[in-house]
UniProtKB/TrEMBL annotation:
Pathway: Porphyrin-containing compound metabolism; protoporphyrin-IX biosynthesis; 5-aminolevulinate from L-glutamyl-tRNA(Glu): step 2/2
Gene that encodes the chain: hemL
Gene3D superfamilies given in the database record: Aspartate Aminotransferase, domain 1, Type I PLP-dependent aspartate aminotransferase-like (Major domain)
Keyword list, A-Z: Cytoplasm, Isomerase, Porphyrin biosynthesis, Pyridoxal phosphate
Modified residues (N6-(pyridoxal phosphate)lysine): K265
Organism the protein comes from: Bowmanella denitrificans
Name recorded for this polypeptide: Glutamate-1-semialdehyde 2,1-aminomutase
Amino acid sequence: MQKSVQLFERAQQHIPGGVNSPVRAFKAVGGTPLFIEKADGPYLFDADGKRYIDYVQSWGPMVLGHNHPAIRQAVLEAVEKGLSFGAPTEAEVLMAELVSQLVPSMEMVRMVNSGTEATMSAIRLARGYTGRDKILKFEGCYHGHADALLVKAGSGALTLGVPSSPGIPADFAQHTLTVEYNNLDSVRQAFAEVGEQIACIIVEPVAGNMNCIPPVEGFLQGLREICDQYGSILILDEVMTGFRVALGGAQAHYGITPDLTCLGKVIGGGMPVGAFGGKAEIMRHIAPTGPVYQAGTLSGNPVAMAAGLASLTAIQQAGLYQQLSHNTEQLAKGFKAIADKHGIPMSINYAGSMFGLFFTDVERVTNYQQAINCNQAQFNHFYHAMLTEGVYLAPASYEAGFVSAAHDQVIIEQTLAAADIVLARL
Ligand code: PMP
C-alpha cells in the first residue's frame, strides 16, 4: 500500500481529489484508493505489486477479463496504421453492421466517446424528434453527467426536478421528471398529468448504479406500453447492460424493444467509446441527414473501433453467456449462503453477469430507497476486509459487481473462501 499512499498524496496536489472520476477516490468506503499498475484476466495488480481478484472490471467493459489477447492484438495492429483520421473508415461500417446484427432494434448506430455522450445525444434526438421538452427518469438510475440527467426528484412525482449538482440551472432541471424505479404506477401518474409533453423515458433496464437492481416482472413491458400510448420514445440505457446481461443486451434478456438504445464502455472493450442507435426513422433526424445536431472529432476512432470489433467478435463464442450467468449465480448464492451461516442479514440480486450484495434484512431489494437504507458501515468493513484478502469489489455499496469470462470456478471458490473468513469476523 506504500506506493498507492504516496501516489495518492501526489495526485491530490494537481488532480481534484486525486482522481479523474469521483468514485475511484474511495470516499464512500474510506481509506486510500489502490493505484493500479496492470491487469490480466480476473486480476488487478496494484502499484505495490499486490494481486487482487477484480469484480469491477473497469466498471463493466471487460466481459472477457482484462488484457484479452485478441483485443490487445487488434489494438496493436490498428495503432500501426495511425491513431485518428477525422474521416470515415471501414472499421466504423463493420462496427455499425455488427451492432445492428447483435442488437436488432439498433437499425442505425452513431458512435460517440462515452456513455454520457450517448445518453445526452439520445435525449436530444428524442426531444428533437417529438418536439417535446420533458423527460422521465428513475430515482437511483445514473445516465452520465449531462445537465438534464443530474437531476433528482422534487418532493412528489410531479414536482419539478431539482439539480443534484451546483452548476445546473434550475431551468434545465425542471424538464426532468424523476419517479421510483420498478413502480409503474408512479410512471402512469406522471403521464396522466403531463404525458403529452414527455419526449422520452430513459431507464437502465437493470439498474447498476444503485447496487444491482433488476426490473420486476412487467416493469419494462409497462414502460413500452406507456410510451406507445403517449407517443413518447423509450430509451434503454444499456451502457452497463449491453453485451453483458446477454449478448443482445438486457433488451434481448427481457424481450423488450426500445426505440433508442445507449451503449457505452462495453462496446469499446476497454477503450473510451459509446454509441446510441435505434429505429432508422428516428436516427435519420440526426445531422447530417436531419436537423438534430450531434458530432465528435474522435468519434469512431480507429483504435477504439479495432478494440470494440475484436471484443464484440470474441464475445460471440458459443456458451459464453451461459457460463457467465452460471458463475455469477454461483457467486451471488455463495455469498448469501455464507452470510446466512454467519447470521448476517444479506440480500442478493443478479442478472446475467451483474450482481449486487445488500447488507439488509429486506428480502428482495427493488428500489433506491431500499438500496440506500442498507447497512453502509457493515459494507465498508466487509469491503476493506475483502481487499485485505485479495478481492477487489467496487468501492461503494451502491455499485454493481461484474463477473468476467476469466472468473472461472477456481476464482469463484477463492472469492467465496475469502468471504467466509471475512463474514465470520464481521
Ligand atoms: N449510463 C449508465 C447506465 C452508466 O452506468 C454510466 C457510467 N457508469 C453512464 C451512463 C455514463 O457513462 P460514462 O461514464 O462513460 O460517461
